[in-house]
Amino acid sequence: MNSIAKTLFSSFTLVVLIGFTLLRLPIMIKDGIEINYIDTLFTAVSATCLTGLTVLNIGDTFTIQGQIVLLLLIQFGGLSVLTFANYFIRNIASKANQSIKTLFKEILIFTLAFELIGAVGLFTVWDHSLFISTNERIYYSIFHSISAFCNAGFSLFDDSIIGINVYSQMVLISIIVIGSFGFSGIREIVHPKAVRERINNPKQLLHVNTRISINTMVIISFVGSAGFYVMDMYNASDKMFDKIVWSLFQAVTARSAGFNAVDLNTLNNGSIGLLILLMFVGASSGSTGGGVKSSTIAVLILRLKAKLTRALKGEPSSIWISDLLLKKALLLIKVTIASITAGTALLYFTEADFNIRQLLFEQVSAITTTGLSLGITSELSSIGKCIVMLSMFFGRTVLLNIAFTSNEVDSKSDDEIFIG
Q1: Are the C-beta atoms of 349 and 313 separated by less than 8 Å?
Q2: What is the three-class DSSP state of 62?
Q3: Distance between CA 31 and CA 25 in Å, rounded?
Q4: Which of 60, 12, 2, 3 is nearest to 394 (CA)?
Q5: What does 79-139 look like in DSSP terms, one character per residue?
Q6: Which of 29, 102, 260, 332 would be 160's cystine partner, CB 3.0–4.6 Å?
Q7: CB 212 within 8 Å of CB 295
């Protein structure tokens, strides 16, 4: 394990323990509420790992102080993932030379700026009847903006965001997409220096990773939303526009955000299967999202395309996919599938009250740090909760470490494609 991997693993472990200790304090829990040690630890792990699976009703269980601790855990998780991932991408894989302190400062400004914009947007479009005061509306706006940007999926509402208006869904979609797109890609698009370079040189292409992120985001969002629209349109409003937004929200949140806009138990098997697939693929590299990452899947597709292009036209592909990169992408996918299989098997033996469909969905959600559930999380046994906790931690730290060690650039390649 390299020094970056060790730092990531140890820092997440330390923060989980600090969060667990703080959440055990009486001031963090509302009067009359009792929480056992397993549920407290589960909540700390889920928040730090940006998962969103919950065994408790956050708004009804924790005081404002406890909710702020959760928010800080989420913010730490988001900043840590962005900083470690992008530091590795820039300084190790790309051979650049930027101090982690400078990078962290840049990411912090980037994160807080978009979270502030998101909070303002939510404050503007929330249904006022949901809140008892303007201050509560401000607080909910900040909490959900941070949770959405970090792809954490935590909500203060009783049923996630089920029932919120379509404009609130649209704002959340925007925040989630930015958080799941990746810092390097967003920076290349919006940074003033990058914008000036594109103006001066209109023919200059975006980095291959940014192009992959854009293309996969558009394709996955379109295919996913079309699938949900066709298979489960009855779950949405009778209005065409509302149905389209609802379908798009389901496709976007399934890539790692974990918010519920509908009771997932009302979805048919086709939609559940689509959710599992979207959770597995996940977000873009270098982002707060989880999954194997869209760039990892893109490597397989591009390699297949290159082989077909050479076979049919006798021409080389425009993007080089080395054997080494292909092997590393396959390794990440194999480890993810193996961990999902193992976790599901363990849950099957410990959770006799639930069927394989529910357990598979829960395990995929945990490993990919998505946070969607078919409503069984709080009903799991203590052993089951421990299995899910370990899966969340594994998905956020170990799989990211595998990605770190897999992103060494092949010397024959003109473009660096980063996976995981």
Answers
A1: no
A2: strand
A3: 12
A4: 12
A5: HHHHHHHHHIIIIIIS-----HHHHHHHHHHHHHHHHHHHHHHHHHHS-GGG-SSHHHHHH
A6: 260
A7: yes
Distance CA 313, CA 307 (A): 10
* Residues shown for the chain: 420
| Structure confidence by residue, pLDDT tens digits, 309-352 | 766 665 555 566 778 888 888 999 999 999 999 999 999 999 99
10: Cβ–Cβ under 8 A, 6 or more apart, which residues? Answer: none
Look-up of token digits 């330390």: 14
359 strand-pairing partners:
none
Q: What is the pTM of this model?
A: 0.91
Reference 118, options 50, 65, 168; nearest CA is 168
The pLDDT mean for the chain works out to 87
Residue 412 pLDDT grade (very low, low, confident, very high; cuts 50, 70, 90) = very low
**Amino acid identity at 138:** I
CA 240 to chain centre: 28
pLDDT in tens, 359-411: 999 999 999 999 999 999 999 999 999 999 999 999 998 887 776 665 555 44
Q: CA 349 to CA 360: how far, in whole Å?
A: 13
Q: Please choose, from the candidates 24, 19, 28, the residue with its C-alpha nearest in 3D space to the C-alpha of residue 64.
A: 28
The pLDDT value recorded for residue 97 is 66
Give Cα separations from 13 to 44, 175, 288 (angstroms): 10, 27, 18
Torsion from C-alpha of 385, 386, 387, 393, nearest 10 degrees: 110
Look up residue 278 and give its two tokens.
């979207």
